[in-house]
Amino acid sequence: MKYLFCFLFLCLLSVSVFAQKRDFTMYIETSDIRNFWAAYDEVQKLINPEEKVSTFQKLYVDKATFGLQDFIKSRNFSSGQWIESFESKPKFWRSIRSKTENIQKDFQNIQNLYQNFSRIYADFSPPKIYFTMGNLKGGGTVINGNLIIGSELAASDKEVDYSELSQNYQDRMKINSGIIFLTAHELVHTQQNLRGTKTNLLGLCLKEGSADFIAELLTGKKVEAPYIDYGMQHQNSLWNDFEKEMNGEDFQNWLSNTATIKDKPADLGYFMGYIITKRFYDKSKDKQSAINIIMNLDFSNTAETEQFLEKSGYKTARK
What we know:
The radius of gyration is 22 Å and the shape is globular. The protein has helices spanning 2-20, 31-44, 49-59, 66-75, 79-88, 90-101, 107-120, 151-154, 167-174, 179-191, 201-219, 226-233, 235-245, 268-283, 287-296, 302-312; strands spanning 28-29, 129-132, 140-143, 146-150. It has a four-stranded mixed β-sheet with strand order 1-2-4-3, with helices on both faces. The chain is mostly helical. It is built from 16 helices and four strands.
């Protein structure tokens, strides 16, 4: 009986450990990357423009995963556009190839992201991640609950030849440090309360900034971005400007803007949402409850986002 009890105890313990260490790799899909480079190689052998387009269409677009299909629709990609990009940016595509083909080297870290998320947030629902190849129109997005990564942008770093790209892309690629933080940020978006379709500047900044903050918790690393460094050093002046605009719907000074406006880095709205969320979390005694509130915040509800700002104490933090 004693040995039987010990055996049953060890079985239960192993089941418990297994439950805590779920295998999340089943949620990762990379076939689009393989199909892309197979199509790319075939295109390089051809001369006729129409044949290039039809070959790429057949070998890549027509074989698209569900995630890539959604990505193509959302960004209006076409085979002709890809062929044009291959011909106008050959250095970029050649230099990014190995980065995307070896993207699986980061899958253990992605597994850790899922594991950490399920640990800090009880309602975590694992999404599918599609590592696709886009055409320089977005490193990451969420469509139909799935996380879709444009690997040609997400995997770019300082080793990639981006000399053929616009200055805006060059600025962004210079600070890119791999796929993990981007994946973590977009992973948060799959879990957020995004039912509302319309929001003001405060709501949208909280949506993006809170994703940065939770991603920081998931990765255990600080956000590496110019808007964070600049924001930390200029909080008073930024808040004064942000307070005047946060209830409006004009985002041009804060989100998806260029990096040269008034000698400020782009996307300072991310910082505003990040620092407000961080102050709310740091001020909360119950961290688990704080994460639940952050994850369930309705960014389209102006009364709710204003209340979140008030509870963070950030409005009066510098006075």
